[in-house]
Design goal:
Layout (H helix, E strand, L loop, with lengths): L1 H4 L4 E7 L6 H9 L6 E8 L5 H9 L5 E6 L4 H11 L4 E4 L5 E2 L3 H11 L6 E6 L11 H6 L10 E4 H6 L12 H11 L4 E10 L13 H12 L8 H19 L4 H11 L11 H10 L3 H18 L2
Parallel strand pairs: 1-2, 1-4, 2-3, 6-8
Antiparallel strand pairs: 4-7, 5-8, 6-7
Helix pairs in contact: 9-10, 9-11, 10-12, 12-13
Length: about 300
């Protein structure tokens, strides 16, 4: 008992929606952590299948599990609900169809303690993206050009999130993880990453992430334009901005190009573009004000020529 008291409490936040086939495996990977001082916050986002009942069943067997049932409002609202309920010194997010290794928290907290508990954000590897580059200060993290995009596979110091009222942008279906991460890093002192692939993704291709609507893409572009730390994270914002324009063209294949062009000119970045944007990102964004379709097609040609010249 005394050993448990010196361990910081870790809050694991899991947004749950219609994952009855996977949620049991996810929860088991959390309850089987060798690090015992945890609270597992399962936020049932109005599931229409048996997900909520499965969560309640697990909670009845493990007092560390807390289930919150809410009306369906999206993953960002579910995560924010979990943040409000979290009591831990550290917060981590796990998606309800994913799992983490049993040693994830033991090794992560041990690493933080070895570094005098000065780390504010600790990122670890996953089956989707192994981490190789290490950094320490906030500026080194930003300059690495390798900040993690997803909110999962990271440990965040809870006080930074709560003191600065950092939350996921609700109603945003794309890019919410990146903007959340960049906001936390902005308020951090030391960020580190370890190469261990603790996090295991299960990708479901029917997700809205893979099939976004034009309106969802416009909403993300608008939030990017209004992001308060857009200049500090210029490199990442450029990739995010242009990436969503590319995704729009992929989804529509040139259809609705005029409407999208009009919305870009009305609601998003018009220039001058943030510092640290690459020239190709600036050019693509500028051309997209006239035609996203032509801009992305031109970008592909330029990149092809560049690769041929730099073989």
């Amino acid at each position: 008992m005394q050993d448990q008291e010196v361990k910081p409490l870790v809050s694991i936040i899991v947004p749950v929606y219609n994952v009855e086939l996977y949620i049991g495996e996810c929860i088991a990977s959390l309850t089987n952590q060798t690090y015992s001082n945890i609270e597992i916050i399962l936020v049932d986002d109005g599931s229409k299948d048996k997900s909520g009942l499965i969560c309640d069943d697990y909670a009845g067997k493990d007092e560390r599990i807390k289930v919150i049932h809410i009306q369906n409002s999206g993953v960002s609202h579910a995560r924010n609900t979990g943040i409000e309920a979290a009591n831990g010194e550290w917060i981590t997010f796990v998606d309800s169809d994913d799992t983490i290794d049993n040693e994830t928290l033991t090794k992560s907290i041990s690493y933080i303690k070895r570094h005098l508990n000065e780390i504010d954000v600790l990122q670890f590897g996953s089956t989707e993206s192994q981490l190789e580059f290490n950094y320490s200060t906030k500026q080194e993290a930003i300059n690495s050009h390798k900040l993690r995009k997803n909110a999962c596979a990271s440990l965040y110091r809870a006080s930074i999130i709560k003191t600065n009222n950092i939350r996921f942008i609700e109603g945003l279906r794309l890019g919410e993880d990146q903007l959340f991460n960049y906001s936390v890093v902005h308020h951090s002192r030391f960020c580190q990453r370890i190469p261990d692939n603790f996090y295991h993704y299960r990708r479901i291709e029917t997700s809205s992430t893979f099939n976004p609507s034009a309106d969802a893409l416009i909403r993300t572009l608008k939030e990017i334009a209004n992001f308060p730390y857009i200049n500090e994270f210029g490199y990442y914002i450029g990739l995010l901005y242009v990436g969503h324009i590319l995704q729009f063209v992929r989804v529509t294949d040139g259809r609705d190009d005029r409407r999208f062009t009009a919305l870009i000119n009305k609601k998003v970045i018009r220039g001058p573009y943030p510092k640290n944007w690459s020239r190709i990102d600036c050019l693509t964004a500028l051309m997209s004000r006239f035609s996203p379709y032509i801009a992305t097609k031109s970008l592909r040609v330029v990149l092809t020529i560049y690769k041929l010249l730099h073989r």
